[in-house]
Automatic annotation (TrEMBL):
GO CC annotation, single: plasma membrane
Fumarate reductase/succinate dehydrogenase flavoprotein-like C-terminal domain sequence ranges: 511-645
InterPro entries for this protein: FAD-dep_OxRdtase_2_FAD-bd, FAD/NAD-bd_sf, Fum_R/Succ_DH_flav-like_C_sf, Fum_Rdtase/Succ_DH_flav-like_C, SdhA/FrdA/AprA, Succ_DH/Fum_Rdt_flav_su, Succ_DH/fumarate_Rdtase_cat_sf
Protein name: succinate dehydrogenase
Annotated source species: Mariniphaga anaerophila
Top EC class for this record: oxidoreductase
Names of the cofactor(s): FAD
Organism ancestry: Bacteria, Pseudomonadati, Bacteroidota, Bacteroidia, Marinilabiliales
Family: Belongs to the FAD-dependent oxidoreductase 2 family. FRD/SDH subfamily.
Length: 646
């Protein structure tokens, strides 16, 4: 029998959220002032949640490991944010956004959560416009929209190629306003290393001051984790160097189930790897696929000449170019979802049609849109992205096609949460990319910003009150309690153990080894033999790490290598669970592509009879096998069909 209660409301899909809000408890303004909430992470989810909760009257402590909330990785998002406004009068609707998201996620997400996301999406745009976010506008002054992968309408609001930055500045302003009013206490350069439970409820965190090295205790009536995803387990990804999964992993080790860990997103539009000394990859916005056409040569001999540098892309005439996305998926063309576009690029490169020296790149060409619209129009839409590409590659994309290749991007898996965004630990919430709830097996483009702001502005502020209404008589949490003592001792002991290994190899040596294993066996394509091999190899690298890692610097001081070591130690455990989850899911769906489960024409093949569930893993202790629980997914409003974008 499942021990999971998703708390999905009864009733028609379109009425669930309003009925739920009407039925849950509310905390009065006077009582909100008695209650403290910790928010870990200050990206779009964390900043919007902290600002909203403080505006309501709660006392908030906010934490980020960066020197400023403005450095959260949300700032790197480029292309836009979805909302069902139907400004283009192209027959968009809340239901269409809901359906596109469910279908894009290959029918592996909860209907109720996804519909709520679509339902609150229009409010996000109004909120951000009121904050002064400079969205792109049409000639007449109305907000502009662009299209994105996996949909047939234009619903993506954008601020050139820097939408994440502008949205984060809006949330940051709201957060700063509450800091100035004294409602939010901000702790920058502090990293959460453990969550503290008292009587089974989350009552605080242990955090390390990254400047002084001091380990500190912080208490609260509830804890919200908004720390993003775990894509950096692959070492090379589009994530910021500091992005990590450690906060969510500590929640898992304290009883919060980890859901769908094998679901990670491969983004098709990334600048290809160059050499073996890179530390991260650079994303080129999916919005570029609106006006750029993806192609490789039709002839292998042309591809070979390109790889050798004997000819350039512009030397190949149109009739010798294979616009393979348009050929294979005529309905959607270059705007197929990310997982579909990524696999198609890999298939062409594996077949010998790759165009860079390593054979791991395809072209994204703007020649045709420049001829159709003029350079000035393309420059207005994507100028900063083109500039970024030229700075990195020394190639002018106005004159030559961009080279792109798939790369690890987003984590669909994460901490399991119910409809209220609470984990399986009472009082512990998870929002944004840190949880699993809205994207299924593949996130549609421009939906990450939507989910982070939806959770922070329009969902959590309602649902957290349902829990905190029963906590108004709970006194201020005593951080001298034995549970805090035990948690701090455990954190300190782990830090000292890492530091005192005094091995011979730096942290990055082990992280790179892990990344190679993850990409080769748990990456774009997976099979049973490779996944079993990955589990064994990860265990061997982890064992070597704990014997031979070298951490220079001081223990009780600023020490970035010590920070990194703790995060990489967690990545070994996360990577192993990802491989185990991928082994269990003997089907292909979204970004999880099992070579044993493929249609006749090479597409992902789901198995709805056996795998229409959320994989929820329960921690059972160090060196113990985790236990798998299953939350069955029930579809009452959409018909499960094999995805087709043809």
């Amino acid at each position: 029998m499942s021990i999971l209660d998703s708390k999905i409301p009864e009733g028609p899909l379109a009425e669930k959220w309003n009925k739920h809000k009407a039925g849950i408890k509310v905390v009065s303004p006077a009582n909100k002032r008695k209650l403290e909430v910790i928010v870990v992470g200050t990206g779009l989810g964390g900043a919007s949640a902290a600002a909203s909760l403080a505006e309501l009257g709660y006392k908030v402590k906010a934490f980020c490991y960066q020197d400023s909330p403005r450095r959260a990785h949300s700032i790197a998002a480029q292309g836009g944010i979805n909302a069902a406004k139907n400004y283009q009068n192209d027959n968009d609707s809340v239901f269409r956004l809901f359906y596109d998201t469910i279908k894009g996620g290959d029918y592996r997400a909860r209907e109720a959560n996804v519909y709520r996301l679509a339902e609150v999406s229009p409010n996000i745009i109004d909120q951000c416009v009121a904050q002064g976010v400079p969205f792109g506008r049409e000639y007449g002054g109305l907000l502009a929209n662009r299209s994105f992968g996996g949909v047939l309408v234009s619903r993506t609001f954008y601020a050139r190629g820097q939408t994440g930055q502008q949205l984060l500045l809006g949330a940051y302003q709201a957060l700063n306003r509450q800091i100035a009013k004294g409602n939010v206490e901000m702790f920058s350069r502090h990293e959460m290393l453990d969550v503290v439970k008292i009587d089974g409820k989350a009552r605080g965190i242990i955090a390390r001051d990254l400047v002084s090295g001091e380990v500190k205790r912080f208490g609260a009536h509830a804890v919200v984790v908004a720390t993003g995803g775990y894509g950096n387990v692959f070492f090379l990804s589009t994530n910021a160097m500091g992005s990590n999964g450690s906060a969510a992993w500590q929640c898992y080790k304290k009883g919060a189930f980890f859901a769908n860990p094998c679901f990670v997103q491969i983004h098709p539009t990334c600048i290809p790897v160059h050499g073996d000394q890179q530390s991260k990859l650079t994303l080129m916005s999916e919005s570029l696929r609106n006006d750029g056409r993806v192609w490789v040569p039709k002839k292998k001999e042309d591809a070979e000449k390109l790889r050798k540098g004997e000819i350039g892309a512009n030397d190949i005439p149109d009739e010798d170019r294979d616009f393979y996305l348009e050929r294979r998926y005529p309905s959607y063309g270059n705007l197929v979802p990310r997982d579909v576009a990524s696999r198609a690029a890999k298939e062409r490169c594996d077949a010998g049609f790759g165009v860079n020296a390593e054979g791991k790149a395809v072209y994204l060409d703007f020649k045709y849109s420049i001829e159709r619209l003029g350079k000035k129009v393309i420059e207005a839409r994507y100028g900063n992205l083109f500039q970024m590409y030229e700075k990195i590659t020394d190639v002018d994309p106005y004159k030559e096609p961009m080279m792109i290749y798939p790369a690890i991007h987003y984590s669909m898996g994460g901490t399991w949460v119910d409809y209220n965004l609470m984990t399986s630990v009472p009082g512990l919430y998870s929002i944004g990319e840190a949880n699993f709830s809205d994207h299924g097996a593949n996130r549609l483009g421009a939906s990450a910003l939507m989910q982070g702001l939806a959770d922070g502005y329009f969902v959590l502020p309602y649902t957290i009150g349902d829990y905190l209404a029963d906590e108004i008589m709970t006194p201020t949490v005593d951080t001298n309690a034995p549970e805090f003592d035990e948690a701090e001792k455990s954190v300190t002991a782990r830090i000292e153990k890492l530091y005192n290994i005094k091995g011979s190899k730096p942290v990055d040596y082990f992280h790179k080894k892990l990344g190679h294993v993850m990409w080769n066996y748990v990456g774009m394509s997976r099979n049973e033999e490779g996944l079993k091999k990955a589990v064994q190899m990860i265990r061997e690298i982890r064992e070597e790490f704990w014997k031979d890692v070298k951490i220079p610097g001081e223990l009780d001081n600023l020490n970035p290598e010590l920070e990194k070591a703790g995060r990489v130690a967690d990545f070994f455990d996360i990577g192993e669970l990802m491989a185990m989850d991928a082994l269990d899911r003997k089907e292909s769906c979204g970004g999880h592509f099992r070579e044993e489960s493929v249609t006749d024409d090479g597409e992902a093949k789901r198995n709805d009879d056996k795998f229409t569930y959320v994989s929820c893993w329960e921690y059972k202790g160090e060196s113990q096998e985790p236990v798998l629980h299953k939350e069955d997914l029930v579809f009452e409003n959409v018909k499960l069909t094999q995805r087709s974008y043809k």
